Amino acid sequence: MECHPELVSAFLDGELEPVIMQEFLEHITHCPPCQELLLQLGCFQGLFQGAPKMADPESLTRHIMLEIHNHAVRPVGQDEPRGVDAPGGATKRPTTSA
Question: Does residue 41 contact residue 12 with C-beta atoms inside 8 Å?
Answer without folding.
Answer: yes
